[in-house]
Specification:
The chain folds into 2 domains: 148 residues, no CATH class; 143 residues, 3-Layer(aba) Sandwich (Aminopeptidase). Strand 3 and strand 4 form a beta hairpin. Helix content is 31%, strand content 27%. It is built from 8 helices and 12 strands. It has a 12-stranded mixed β-sheet, sandwiched between helices. It has 313 residues and is of the alpha+beta class.
């Protein structure tokens, strides 16, 4: 039984794609980020040896045993391989992860004891935190802290929601939704940055231009316009495995409490359904009761909770 890693998104999806798609809602982040990278390999640029890394755990026995590194690069260059894996046979995939610095490593549900093995397998790689099911996150963070001598703190507690039946805000606020335009990239980038700062995103210091351009490239940004002014925006990921995820949702501070966020979220949700999405998802911060209430009123229902744990010191 072993962890296998790669810097090749196609190799990762060939090995772990079926596992991820089997629970597409719970694995929405891995599916949407790998789809971005499949279409645009430069989406998450980084220093050599610290670029995007993917991995999967299988029950196949290999000569390296638990924690075996198959391909790609860990830390400063240890764990490189031929890209074909070191184990004998493929086995059954039972877990996966992705790491796109400076974001935390995102981990799927895992069998007992496997999170600790992943922490050992990633030893030496700069990690700012882990995003996972609370039990998996705690197991990984405990092993990481013991090995690295760092502190662990709760960065964010999240809830994943799935759209059940869309209910439009009634009464609807003034204005209407429309797809954002390339000419508005300046304002959109400013709002993406403001959103990242407000939620204390681990990558809030990074330039948001690439993220905005990626969304504009597939019509994935919708704005709510009232009185000739853009007052709110909502993004949506590319369609992958029959689902999309809404986010970010941002309203300029002086325009809040008018119902614009509810309206623009309902608009992008309807657009996703009209485009053939079988599942429409979104994450909320459990520390924000207003957002959780808004999304439930327009038809979103809880799927699961996750936690982001940060490593410090």
């Amino acid at each position: 039984m072993s962890w296998r890693t790669t810097e090749d998104v196609a190799e990762f999806l060939a090995a772990a794609g079926e596992f991820l798609r089997a629970e597409r809602a719970r694995n929405t982040v891995l599916l949407t980020v790998t789809e971005q990278l499949r279409l645009n390999p430069s989406r998450y640029p980084a220093e050599p040896g610290n670029g995007p890394l993917f991995g999967w755990w299988s029950d196949a026995a290999g000569p390296g045993g638990s924690g075996t590194i198959a391909s790609g690069t860990i830390g400063s260059g240890t764990g490189t391989g031929s890209g074909t894996g070191t184990g004998s046979g493929t086995g059954t995939v039972g877990g996966a992860f992705l790491h796109t610095p400076p974001f935390p490593v995102v981990v799927t549900d895992l069998p007992a004891g496997v999170a600790e093995d992943l922490a050992a397998a990633l030893a030496g790689r700069p990690l700012g935190g882990v995003n996972a099911d609370p039990a998996v996150a705690r197991a990984f963070a405990g092993a990481w802290a013991a090995a690295e001598g760092c502190l662990v703190e709760v960065h964010r507690e999240q809830r994943l929601y799935r759209l059940a039946e869309l209910t439009w805000p009634d009464p609807a606020p003034a204005g209407a939704a429309r797809i954002a335009a390339e000419a508005e990239i300046g304002l959109l980038t400013e709002w993406f940055s403001a959103f990242a700062r407000e939620v204390e995103d681990m990558a809030s210091h990074t330039d948001q231009t690439a993220a905005v351009r990626e969304r504009l490239g597939h019509g994935g940004l919708t704005v709510w316009e009232a009185g000739g002014e853009i007052v709110s925006l909502a993004g949506v990921t590319r369609h992958v495995a029959g689902m999309v995820r809404v986010g970010p949702v941002y309203t300029s501070p002086e325009k809040r409490s008018f119902g614009y966020a509810s309206a623009v979220t309902a608009a992008v949700s309807q657009q996703a359904l009209d485009a053939g999405a079988e599942e429409v998802l979104l994450f909320t911060d459990l520390a924000n009761p207003v957002a959780n209430s808004i999304y439930q009123r327009i038809g979103y229902r809880p799927v699961e909770d996750r936690v982001v744990l940060a490593f410090a010191g």
